Amino acid sequence: MLKNIAVIKGDGIGTEIIDEAIKVLKKIEAKYGHTFNLEYVPMGGCAIDEFGVALPDSTLEACKKADAVLLGAVGGPKWDNPSAKVRPEQGLLGLRAGLECYANIRPAKVYKPLSSASPLKDAIIADGFDIVMVRELTGGIYFGESGREGDSAFDTERYSVSEIERITKVAFEIAMGRKKVLHSVDKANVLESSRLWRETVVKVAKEYPEVSLIHILVDNAAMQLVRNPAQFDVMVTSNLFGDILSDEASMITGSIGMLASASIGATSNGIYEPIHGSAPDIAGKGIANPIATILSVAMMLDYSFGLKQEAADIDNAVNQVLSENYRTADIYTEGFIKVSTTEMGKLIFDKINN
Predict the structure, then answer these.
(1) For domain 119-252, which architecture applies?
(2) Cβ distance 304 to 145 under 8 Å?
(3) Quick check: is 247 catalytic?
(4) What pTM value is reported for the model?
(5) Which of 20, 57, 165, 270 has the fewest other C-beta atoms within 10 Å?
């Protein structure tokens, strides 16, 4: 298989974690006989410094032509001025819009060797959990009409049937490849936009008779995530609810440095990145955790390229390394073996046997 990948290292620890992820990708390339052509392009603070914009036109064009985009992280205190007209985060928003990425996919998984890091009781996560959160990314209250009138302010939640249909189909397709159970999260007992959401999801469900559809109100979903997260497999919800619930799901894993994400949309081209930030305070110290970025490569292989075995190879390698008690600083506790960014990358690399 031949695939072209646009690689954005970005700012802060982006360079370090991307380097380790690329090594693992190259190991997969060699093992399975694929060809992954890499084009490195700038975005974020480094692009502002060089070009005066967070997302140069040449970068966006390269990403559009690529089969997928692998992203490290953007931002940092150097550019963190709320009044600045140009900010690193604008690059990410522009990239999502340019690639028409309307679906944010965020797995939240507890690896058994790391279960002690979860804030939940052992009895709750004894068997672990593996959730995929599908969040609508380009509509809803964040993009509705907003403003101020006198001493009041307003933000409008608005969704169209077509917006709900397309995000729901993404979720159903993912559910078909997993346990065939989908929880749709809304607030249909109060919000008209949620009533439309539920009506539309029910219509789409007729195209996927093998999938069990379960409706759940957002407040109950928030409670159930901490009471019994293992009951969930795939969850789909709106932009606002997904923003909150995906953060909750990530934190109950206890290890934000372990979590990958994908933003996909109109084509198979997607943006794959860790959910954590650029962590400028530890940049260059060799202590950043590369696992979330390495797992983002696994998501890219799976979702954009359909290479499920290759993706599973990476996931298994990560699990083996953790089972052997190796930890980067962010997930280290006494009694384990502390390793650097590059050491962790090499350990995972070595587990992917030729």
Answers:
(1) 3-Layer(aba) Sandwich (3.40)
(2) no
(3) yes
(4) 0.91
(5) 57
